[in-house]
Write a structure and sequence with these properties.
single chain, 5-stranded antiparallel β-sheet, 4-stranded antiparallel β-sheet, 2 helices, 9 strands, globular
Length: about 170
C-alpha cells in the first residue's frame, strides 16, 4: 500500500538577476526507503506576487545520496554547480494569477526526479534531498519566478509531498 510522507523543508534561493534565476530547495530527514516506488511527488511553492508569477523553469534533483546544505554567499554556483539528475520537469506558465504571497502553486510532478534519487545505491532513508530549478526563459527577463522561501516565511516554505510503495 502507498505510504504518504510530507517532509519538512529548509529552502535557499539564489538569484543573480531576473534573467538567470536559480532556486534551491532542501528537505531534511526524508524517510523513504532505498528503491521504494515513488507513486506521487508534488512540489508546491508560494509565489511572492503577481509580477513574479510566470515560470519558465526546469526542475532537477541534486543527484547525490545526501544533499548538502546550500551555502550563503556562494551565489548561483552553490546551486548550478551541483550534480543534477537526468530526470527533470519543465514548468511553463505565462501567468499563474498569483495575487499575494499566500497561495501554494504545484509544480508539475517531480516523481521521476525523486525516484532517480531514492534509486541511488547508497540512498538511505532519513537522508536530505534537494531539488533545484533554473529559469529557461529567453534572455529578455520577462518570465520571472519569485518564490517565498523558508528563511523569509516558514509557513509559506515550499512543500514536498511524496507517496511511495516500499519494495519487497
Amino acid at each position: 500500500e502507498p505510504t504518504a510522507a510530507t517532509v519538512s523543508v529548509t529552502v535557499f534561493a539564489f538569484t543573480s538577476d531576473h534573467i538567470d534565476e536559480w532556486h534551491g530547495f532542501r528537505w531534511l530527514s526524508v524517510t523513504i526507503p532505498q528503491a521504494a516506488t515513488i507513486d506521487v511527488a508534488t512540489l508546491s511553492v508560494v509565489i511572492d506576487g503577481s509580477t513574479n508569477d510566470e515560470p519558465k523553469h526546469t526542475f532537477y534533483g541534486n543527484n547525490v545520496d545526501n544533499a548538502a546544505i546550500f551555502t550563503a554567499g556562494a551565489g548561483n554556483a552553490d546551486i548550478s554547480g551541483r550534480a543534477l539528475t537526468t530526470a527533470s520537469v519543465a514548468w511553463d506558465n505565462a501567468d499563474l494569477g498569483a495575487i499575494n504571497a499566500t497561495t501554494f502553486f504545484a509544480v508539475p510532478s517531480v516523481a521521476a526526479i525523486v525516484q532517480e534519487i531514492v534509486n541511488r545505491v547508497s540512498w538511505v532513508s532519513g537522508n536530505a534531498l534537494a531539488i533545484v530549478d533554473r529559469q529557461t526563459a529567453p534572455t529578455d527577463g520577462l518570465r520571472d519566478l519569485g518564490i517565498v522561501f523558508f528563511n523569509a516565511n516558514s509557513a509559506s516554505a515550499a512543500k514536498l509531498h511524496i507517496e511511495y510503495t516500499a519494495g519487497g
